[in-house]
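Notes, p. 3: input format for complexes.
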Amino acid sequence: MSDFLEADAPILGGKPSPFPLPAGCHTLAVREVEHYTDTLFRFRVSRPMDFRFRSGEFAMIGLPNAERPVFRAYSMASPAWDDELEFFSIKVPDGPLTEHLQKIQPGDTVLMRKKATGTLTNDSLLPGKRLWMFSTGTGIAPFASLIRDPETYDKFETVILVHGCRTVAELKYGENLVAALNEDPLIGELVHGRLIHYTTVTREPFARQGRITDLIETGKLFDDLGVPRMGPEEDRVMICGSMDMLKDTKDLCLSHGLTEGTNSRPAQFVVERAFVD
Ligand code: A2P
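Output follows (277 residues plus adenosine-2'-5'-diphosphate):
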């Protein structure tokens, strides 16, 4: 069987791509692109009718720019109920995918493999009082999905999105998202007073400074929010960031008495790396 399907040519840079469409891929039409900094942007694309995922999961994304394109894992930043898909991406100089992906325009085509997967889902955690979402950089993406899903608020009384970045400008995506969510006619009422956004910056002056891990270790995070230090009875945790951040935050969860869960064995915390780096 041929590796390639017969289909209309995907669009790249406003022109039909000369490359055949790889088998097993959805073609997504770019609807909107927003750049935040030299290193961060988000984009929205059409959602295929038959593409199903759970809020917090990821899929493999590529561009129709080669016979065998490069694919990278991207968390869906939009919730499972949305009729478009949103992604939040880093721009890596000379990155095999993001060097090209950062140039997409409305009308272009993005490729996506058909299967979604991941551990940062509501199913991987036992119910609890507070859900902590610890993220650095583009690690906020799966949480951008989960904070827009009513199911998250069915399961947890309070949702605390903690986002740590190097610079203030890198917080913008999360800030805009939470502001829009509070104004949203459908979900605004549900999140009101129950979604807390805690931001921190490490490499320039800001109201709150320091690594998330230091803020947990010293207890400043809990003191600032007026909640007890986290523990296995009331708190559930999802973590998404760089490999080092995951390891250090996971160790802190373990030292606070939490146990790690999976989709098939839900427990008190789950971990996933922010993939493209
Ligand atoms: P720092 O500026 O002190 O390195 P990066 O872009 O390198 O992934 O970093 C994003 C944010 O995550 C930065 O604020 C960075 O802080 C922070 N960070 C990096 N490594 C860790 C870690 N091991 N634990 C917690 N935060 C981290």
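The two ends are 35 Å apart (CA to CA).
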